[in-house]
């Protein structure tokens, strides 16, 4: 191709000023009153039991320590255990709220016909496989057309692709697809000459140049897929709620083939339903944004959510990388509601296929989430918005805390005589007097921790029938519980490895080693032995050391599952990428029995477009 393809409607500029974190802001367009019920009651039910359980554990453990007072080392141990336990308890409480909410037979309100909206479906892409993106785009447009309705939709492919070969395929795919689309379907394409500010800048460029013509924008990821019904329900919800600035759906995972991806998809589709329902309850009108599969009021976003640059320690401007949490907080700060509707089904995304691919994505997310800590003191943010940002950061900070707790637990050992650390007389002020941790107390605390970690999974399984999903939908009740047990075993094995990988990501981010924001490797693949060894060296060494301590009688045998997982990190990582028959036998999914029609259509259109482009031999730009 001799020049870049650019197929866009006439420009309709819309101002999008950068917000000031040092000053409060309220959007004049936002409603001045809110008649919707408060989520205070649900928040009390989520936070209070978690706090009470944590204080109870703290009281019990404090009683185990010496009567001479708690020294610094003992205080650190208590703090680590209490902090970790609170977040586990909070997750359990959220799932329990979800079960209560799902069990309430609430009758849907009879509402009038919503006002018609013009909705732009925005798909930002960066060096993606073009036929996959455009196959999904065609599927969504056709599904919307078949559904009908009063709203008007158009798809925008917003390219930031930098690789010339991919750009050539991308543009050829757009031209080919436009010739096959049914009359009335709108597909636009724009490729920026420079990818200023990455995805944030890509969306902001569209808003500031074309946003005025569109009432709402539904932001998608390159791997997003949504049914026409899901898109219509989101649009109706926004149209009926003039105070809503953003409404987030609950994306479910699809397309998993490997062991690791299928484990993730099973967990998302089984345990995630009750958790999402509980989250929606205590969030109320102060929900969060996950960056995709959400509908946003364009004018509210433009006036309220423009992102400024942050000043780094050396005085340079730095892009806010995990923009979604911050944008949700800015919308709420300006007076707009941010809602979460988890009962809208038909919203999908894909997941990394291997443990290493997942870890690489986590490193990018870690950068962005830790960056949010700098924004907690910003002016005007609601308390719940600050909690969302803090919670996102804590999700990564928990890993080094868990690892520190594991190290301390191992060093304390099973008793005074067997401890790796030598106990000295209280008369010697140079050494701490460690708590008298008998084997019984070790077992009790570790069992409580294990039980609390497992509780959200068990509760999620119990809540599944309340959501309308039957165990038999997974190929039979026996097949479901076999898959459940397989997922539990795999998650127990992979959790310690993920803990170490997240800890590495935190330290890389803190030390400034982790730089950049590379695109996600969606297809993934198998990795050689050298890569596996380099990636999992720390886990392997830690696991071997723990195992030796257990065999020598110095470390509690109840830490054996963690030790085994870490010691076997390399083969377990290799196992994570195994696909096809072996993966299907390990973890079965509902989609194996009854694949959604939307995913079948998307796969068909992807393959059709791929054959067409490859048949033309378009692999490099024309001279």
Mean pLDDT: 88
Q: Tell me what portion of residues adopts beta-strand conformation.
A: 5-15%
Q: How many alpha or pi helices? A: 21
Shape call: globular
Largest sheet: 7 strands, mixed
Strand order of the largest sheet: 3-2-1-4-8-6-11
Q: What fraction, in percent, of the residue positions are helical?
A: 40-55%
Q: End-to-end distance, in Å?
A: 7 Å
CA gyration radius, whole angstroms: 26 Å
Short key terms for the protein model shown above:
seven-stranded mixed sheet, 623 residues, disordered C terminus, alpha/beta, 12 strands, three-stranded mixed sheet, 53% helix
Compact overview of the structure:
The protein is an alpha/beta fold and 623 residues long. 53% of the residues lie in helices and 8% in strands.
Written account of the structure:
The protein has 21 helices and twelve strands. The chain is an alpha/beta fold and about 625 residues long. The strands form three sheets. A seven-stranded mixed sheet has the order 3-2-1-4-8-6-11, sandwiched between helices. Strands 5-12-7 form a three-stranded mixed sheet. It is globular, with a radius of gyration of 26 Å. The chain starts with about 40 loop residues before the first helix and ends in an 8-residue tail after the last helix.
What's the helix and strand layout?
Layout: H1 40-64, H2 72-103, E1 118-125, H3 130-147, E2 152-159, H4 164-180, E3 187-191, H5 198-210, E4 216-219, E5 225-226, H6 228-240, E6 244-249, E7 252-253, H7 259-270, H8 272-283, E8 294-297, H9 298-304, E9 310-311, E10 317-318, H10 323-333, E11 337-341, E12 347-349, H11 355-371, H12 383-412, H13 439-463, H14 477-510, H15 529-535, H16 537-551, H17 560-567, H18 569-576, H19 581-586, H20 590-593, H21 597-615
Parallel strand pairs: 1-2, 1-4, 2-3, 6-11, 7-12
Antiparallel strand pairs: 4-8, 5-12, 6-8, 9-10
Helix pairs in contact: 1-2, 1-8, 2-8, 2-12, 2-13, 3-4, 3-6, 3-21, 4-21, 7-14, 8-13, 10-12, 11-12, 11-14, 12-14, 14-17, 15-18, 16-17
């Amino acid at each position: 191709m001799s020049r870049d393809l650019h197929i866009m409607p006439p420009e309709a500029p819309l101002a999008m000023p950068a917000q000031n974190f040092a000053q409060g802001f309220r959007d004049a367009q936002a409603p001045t009153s809110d008649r919707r019920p408060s989520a205070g009651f649900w928040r009390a039910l989520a936070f209070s039991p978690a706090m009470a359980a944590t204080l109870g554990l703290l009281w019990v453990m404090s009683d185990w320590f010496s009567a001479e007072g708690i020294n610094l080392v003992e205080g650190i141990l208590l703090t680590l255990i209490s902090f970790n336990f609170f977040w586990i308890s909070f997750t359990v409480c959220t799932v329990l709220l979800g079960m209560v909410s799902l069990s309430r037979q609430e009758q849907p309100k009879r509402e009038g016909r919503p006002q018609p909206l013009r909705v732009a479906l925005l798909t930002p892409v960066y060096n993606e496989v073009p036929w996959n993106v455009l196959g999904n785009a065609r599927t969504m447009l056709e599904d919307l057309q078949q559904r009908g309705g009063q709203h008007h939709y158009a798809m925008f492919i917003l390219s930031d692709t930098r690789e010339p070969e991919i750009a050539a395929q991308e543009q050829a795919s757009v031209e080919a697809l436009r010739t096959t689309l049914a009359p009335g379907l709108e597909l636009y394409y724009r490729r920026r000459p420079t990818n200023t500010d990455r995805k944030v800048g890509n969306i902001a460029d569209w808003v500031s140049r074309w946003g005025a013509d569109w009432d709402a924008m539904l932001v998608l990821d390159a791997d997003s897929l949504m049914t026409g019904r899901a898109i219509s329900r989101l649009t109706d919800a926004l149209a009926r709620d003039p105070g809503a600035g953003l409404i987030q759906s609950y994306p479910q995972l699809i397309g998993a083939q490997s062991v690791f991806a299928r484990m993730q998809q099973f967990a998302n589709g089984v345990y995630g339903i009750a958790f999402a329902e509980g989250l929606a309850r205590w969030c109320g009108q102060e929900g969060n944004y996950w960056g995709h599969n959400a509908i946003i009021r364009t004018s509210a976003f433009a006036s309220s959510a423009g992102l400024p640059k942050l000043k780094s320690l050396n005085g340079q401007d730095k892009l806010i990388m995990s923009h979604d949490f911050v944008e949700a907080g800015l919308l709420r700060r300006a007076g707009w509601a941010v809602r979460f509707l988890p009962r809208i089904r038909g919203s999908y995304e894909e997941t990394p296929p291997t443990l290493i691919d997942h870890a690489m994505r986590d490193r990018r997310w870690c950068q962005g989430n830790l960056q949010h800590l700098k924004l907690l003191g910003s002016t005007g943010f609601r308390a719940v918005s600050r909690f969302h940002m803090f919670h996102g950061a804590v999700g990564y900070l928990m890993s080094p805390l868990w690892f520190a707790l594991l190290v301390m637990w191992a060093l304390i050992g099973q008793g005074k005589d067997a401890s790796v650390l030598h106990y000295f007389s209280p008369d010697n002020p140079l050494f701490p007097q460690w708590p008298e941790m008998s084997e019984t107390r070790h077992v009790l605390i570790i069992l409580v921790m294990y039980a609390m970690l497992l509780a959200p999974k068990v509760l999620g399984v119990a809540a599944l029938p309340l959501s309308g999903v039957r165990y038999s939908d997974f190929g039979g009740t026996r097949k479901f519980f076999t898959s459940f047990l397989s997922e539990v075993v795999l998650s127990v094995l992979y959790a310690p490895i993920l803990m170490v990988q997240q800890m590495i990501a935190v330290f890389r981010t803190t030390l400034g080693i982790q730089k950049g924001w590379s695109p996600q490797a969606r297809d993934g693949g198998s990795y050689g032995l050298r890569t596996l060894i380099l990636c999992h060296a720390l886990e392997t060494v830690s696991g071997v050391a723990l195992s030796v301590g257990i065999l020598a009688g110095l470390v509690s045998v109840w830490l054996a599952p963690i030790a085994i997982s870490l010691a076997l990190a390399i083969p377990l990582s290799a196992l994570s990428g195994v696909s096809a028959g072996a993966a299907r036998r390990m973890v079965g999914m509902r989609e194996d029995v009854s694949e959604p029609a939307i995913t079948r259509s998307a796969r068909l259109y992807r393959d059709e477009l791929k054959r067409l482009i490859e048949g033309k031999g378009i692999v490099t730009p024309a001279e």
